[in-house]
Amino acid sequence: MAVPKKKISKSKGGMRYYIWQKKTLKKVLIALSYKNLLVKDDSLYPVNNEKS
């Protein structure tokens, strides 16, 4: 998912967007790992819509 640095510097926002993207990605990864911990013993897959 990592975007080459050359592409980022050319795009709108530049470094600000890159930092924001990193922060958001970190939050998503933390949320996913937390979700996986909750579901680990239940199943290997993320929670389905049926269960929730």
From TrEMBL:
GO terms for biological process: translation. SUPFAM superfamilies: Zn-binding ribosomal proteins. InterPro entries: Ribosomal_bL32 (IPR002677), Ribosomal_zn-bd (IPR011332). It holds the Pfam family Ribosomal_L32p. GO terms for molecular function: structural constituent of ribosome. Keywords: Chloroplast, Plastid, Ribonucleoprotein, Ribosomal protein. One of its GO terms (cellular component) is large ribosomal subunit. Belongs to the bacterial ribosomal protein bL32 family. This is Ribosomal protein L32. It comes from Trachelomonas grandis. The gene is rpl32.
